[in-house]
Amino acid sequence: MRNIENNTENTVVERELELRLVLSPERSIPVPALLTYRTDDPFAVHVTFHVGSEHPVNWTFARELLVEGVFRPCGHGDVRIWPTKVEGRSVVLMALSSPDGDALLEAPTAQVSAWLERTLHAVPPGAEADLLGIDDGLARLLAPSPELSTSLEQGGAPIADDLWLRDPWPSDESQDGEL
Question: CA-to-CA distance for 34 and 74, rounded, in angstroms?
Fold first, then answer.
């Protein structure tokens, strides 16, 4: 496992491990994989499966899904995760579905949990949106522009981009004593 600091604003937490592709209850094959978490994409985890081809298979899904899946069954649709024991070992099962096929993968719980703990230290749960500045971006997007205020104060027409801020339905109430 390695924790790489690219700069003060982006951290990458990676872990190479061997998963097992479950072919049947009696048979599985090893699949080398790389778990990656990046603080510039704080809601997601990335899993790259090296399946002996030139083109590795990449999956991206919510970090929260993997965190919950270590403790209890979760997910639906394309990604489902749950803890279990196989031959006395604690493992996390990941069922992945795509138009190209389905896969059931078994990962060692201790290794996945240790890696997840590192990601949670890099970005604590609930801090993801703060890291991306979503609230600040929305506030800037929704704030009236200074040009609109200046134009309206001077009796001018609103700027086309700011028309959405105006009430599209004029009030039914009369103004200035009009009937």
Answer: 22
